[in-house]
Amino acid sequence: MSCLRVPVVDVQNDNFRELWPSVLLAVKCCSFVALDTELSGLGARKSLLNQCIEERYKAICSAARTRSILSLGIACFREIPDKAEHTYLSQIYNLTLLCMDEYVIEPQSVQFLVQHGFDFNRQYSQGIPYHKGNDKGEESHGRSPRSLFLEILRAQKPLILHNGLIDLAFLYQCFYAQLPDNLGTFTADLSEMFPAGIYDTKYASEFETRFVASYLEYAYKKCKRENCKRMDTSSKYLSIEFCNYPASMSAHIDYRYCSLTAGSSKADKEAVLLCETFSAYGWCPQGQNCAQSHNIDLIIDEDEKGENQKKRRHRRKRKQNVKAVAEVFLEQDGSPPEKQNCAITQELFTAESNEGLCSIPKENELESTIATMEGEWDCSGDHGTDSERMQEEAAATAAKGKSADTDQEGEERVKRGEGGIHRAGFDAFMTGYIMAYVCMLKQGTSRDAEAGPWLPDCHNKVYLSGKAVPLQIVKSMFSKSSKAHSQKLKLVQGPA
Ligand SMILES: [Zn+2]
What we know:
nine-stranded mixed β-sheet, phosphoprotein, 3'-5'-RNA exonuclease activity, Target of EGR1 protein 1
């Protein structure tokens, strides 16, 4: 059965110099670059979700100034010109980093990261050192994480993130300069740092693809499934290729296996109880101890089953169309340090009544874990058409029949591989994959990237948890860029 074998190149202190030229080449030649970070913590969850975006920015700044990036994932996607459209070569790197300045590391973060396979021994012994804040000495010139970040800016490629505001602040503070105090200054700086635009796949998932959920793994797997259906029914589909790395590099490469087909055959046979909390948020307070299934393939199966049932269709439609966003935040207890595994984005999309009244069905289950809840409701208008829905259903039915012959044993092995090690590199890959998929859906051709914004509807829009409008990455008439940034920009624009 079709299975993606995704190579993630491990970059650490003992091979950073050796791999530097290939990382640089990948960044320079790609069509877009997706980044993801793993952090030592986020600080007070409550202030990170402040209704006032300025206040939220202040809280993120304070987190970025006191915490650090533990690992950086870079996924470069290059559209291959002599192949079928939407064929990309993807090169993925996972950099293990070590911040040399003092920083806070939260116990829950350590716990979460260790549970997800993060190796602190390796981080301390093999992390690539860097300093935060403004330039000190030559760190922006040699082969360092900071100079790599400058090279990414120099390459002027579209930057892809998933729920990227926190990533952007941490990247700025750790590899670029001291964060400006003012949000307007920050966005002005960013707009100059990334002239090809910043794209957020959480925003794209919610406002372009309108999947039932938009957390990273859900959106990725959903895109992968939809793409799989397209391979049979349409000439327009996404195709991802990887480098054939030589055997000499095998010690540095971590392969991740991803089945391309759904696990629906299994779901039909046994009644697996899905964790409702995990289904909605991609995160559950019980973590690995949860008695119910956190299997995203089964969760998507369930969602797709719903799409196929007429009875449920109306509800599903409401679910998608009347968007009720309840924003909840967790008082640090057990919430993950992740910015995207919904540590701070707890959204509920539902509408129970036909009158379009918004409600939170899972309130009771969440009550035990949520200390406080703040809600901002946005009931937006109708999205999508029936014809789209019918096409989707037809495709879903077709795919279901196809997946029935999936080798069960192989599937199990694949599942374990996917659920295991949590890595910035693979998250960056998933982020890039979603973008490539959305891009294919939205435009006939992506070859005329020079002509204008690459994906105009998502251009420079960064997702804001609980808000109907994204953060616009622009330089407004009233905001000036920061002094530290202006100095750095000269370095970017000057000779390497
Ligand atoms: Zn659970």
